[in-house]
Amino acid sequence: MPQQIFTHTYSNGLTLLVESMAGVQSAAFSLLLPCGSNDDPLGRPGAASILCDWITRGAGELDSVELTNALDNLGVQRSEGVGNTHLSLGGAMLAQKLPEVLALYASIIRQPHLPDEEFEAARLGVEQSLRSLEDEPRQKVMVELRRRCYPEPWSRPTEGTLEGIAALDAGQVREQYQRTARPSGAILGIAGRVDFEQVREQVGELLGDWGDKPVVPWSGGERGPRSDHLHQESTQTQIGIAFPAVPYRDPDYYAAWGVVNVLSGGMSSRLFTEVREKRGLCYSVYATLHSLRDQAQVLCYAGTSADRAQETLDVTLRELVRVTEGIGEDELRRCQAGAKSSLIMQQESSASRASSLARDWYHLGRVTTLEEVRGQIESLTVPRLLDYLRRHPPRDFTVLTLGPGPLEVPREFL
């Protein structure tokens, strides 16, 4: 059966996207609220991250405990997160519980208590998460890599920083919510065993009269250094490498995706085979395509011992460049097979589909069907990937290392 996807934009600017999935018993929603880290106060990154926790600590007629109990009693599998542009709230549940759940989340986004007595608990939760990052050097080097390869404010760590959250108070975070939380730019994706007309009517009753606010534009800034080192006493070195790619909305996106999967799409991929298996240089190596709305980077990671770090960096950079010399048909077929398996699993998950609806609308202004994605993947050819590489070769590298000593980036890669 073809996918049934419906869209509706309310007069206040809120966009509703609904996909009916007759073969499931669940329903899920993904709400993107325009309160991301790009809106954090200058010099105080972390306000959106605190708000993400604080906003669910009481809303409407329910205090924090009552709200949590209500969501638990409805069997909601909750998710919250922060990106550069949006704060995301999501949930999955039995389909018949969706109306009650939507009513609770409408109160969360429109009538959050944001109580002073709960602020410190929310701030401490973010602090603990940031401190745990110090014990995860792999994650830390990738967070710091993004701070260097993207310009301000896109380079801001969405989690915030320890210094940033320490400088914030309840009034500043509350002001950020009041300034940025609005229906225009908000996207609500719903998928599962649902009826579009019923959902549209209910969401209209809950959020259709939600008053809008002016949009405050972000001011662009500088990016970080192309080569940098963070000192850490350790027997290991973490290596982060980034280079420009095309974003999700670009016609060449799937070609870029194919190239990255040739490099890092499992245990048969180039990086795993050449850097880890053949040479035994590192214990972990991968690359991923990271897309913002209008810009993108390929982010690469390698973790190795300090005494083999320089060789690991040199070999990894050479492998990234060497992909321009040729790609095998077998490599492309492997990437396509893995992608098709992922699509099948996504097709069976209402939570995955709800998230995809909201993401697609933000990036593309429309929703892609699974058949369209499958068609894009199946249409990839080796000549198409090589043509993409001819026009977008790996270059303009950003290199960040974390360990006992800095490494030297070969001149040809700077």
Description:
43% of the residues lie in helices and 20% in strands. By secondary structure, it is α+β, with helices and mostly antiparallel strands. It has 2 domains: 4-207, Cytochrome Bc1 Complex, Chain A, domain 1, CATH 3.30.830.10; 227-409, Metalloenzyme, LuxS/M16 peptidase-like (Cytochrome Bc1 Complex, Chain A, domain 1), CATH 3.30.830. A 6-stranded mixed β-sheet has the order 1-2-6-3-5-4, with helices on both faces. Helix 12 (329-347) runs antiparallel to helix 14. The longest helix is centred in the first third of the chain and has 19 residues, at 116-134. The N and C termini lie far apart (51 Å).
Q: Give me the count of strands.
A: 11
The CATH class name of the largest domain reads Alpha Beta
Q: Kindly state the percentage of residues in helix.
A: 40-55%
First-to-last CA distance: 51 Å
- The whole-angstrom Rg is 23 Å
Give the helix/strand class. alpha+beta
The number of helices is 15
**What is the general shape?**
globular
- Unreliable runs, pLDDT <50, ≥5 residues? none
- Domains counted in the coordinates: how many? 2
Tell me about the biggest sheet?
6 strands, mixed
Could you name the CATH topology of the largest domain?
A: Cytochrome Bc1 Complex, Chain A, domain 1
* Beta-strand proportion: 15-25%
User: CATH superfamily membership of the largest domain, which one?
Assistant: Metalloenzyme, LuxS/M16 peptidase-like
What is the residue-mean pLDDT, rounded to a whole number? 94
| Sequence of secondary-structure elements | EEEHHEEHHHHHEHEEHHEEHHHHHE
Question: Largest beta sheet: what is the strand line-up?
Answer: 1-2-6-3-5-4
| CATH architectural name of the largest domain | 2-Layer Sandwich
